[in-house]
Amino acid sequence: MARTIIKIGDSFRGIDCHKELVHGEVSAILKKTVIIENGTEHYVIKKTEFEKRGDSFPDYDEKKRFNVGL
User: Fold this and answer.
1) 0.90 exceeded by the pTM?
2) Which residue ranges make up each domain of the chain?
3) Where are the beta strands (DSSP E) in the chain?
4) What is the pLDDT of residues 12-46, one digit of tens each?
5) Which of 28, 36, 44, 48 shows the smallest number of beta carbons within 10 Å?
């Protein structure tokens, strides 16, 4: 099965770290979490939630933050 590499701007619909159903766009990719933005709302999603769906991530580099304006 081909894995999709998550990138900034991708849409997401799933469960956040508080077990609530959320939807929005990826606005930041951090070391163990991904930030989803929907208007003025921001949600923290564990990377394991994406991995359950078969998604993967670019290599994390502490010096290079994968975000847009957080």
Assistant:
1) no
2) 4-63
3) 4-5, 11-15, 21-29, 33-38, 41-46, 55-56, 66-67
4) 999 998 999 999 999 988 888 999 999 999 999 99
5) 48
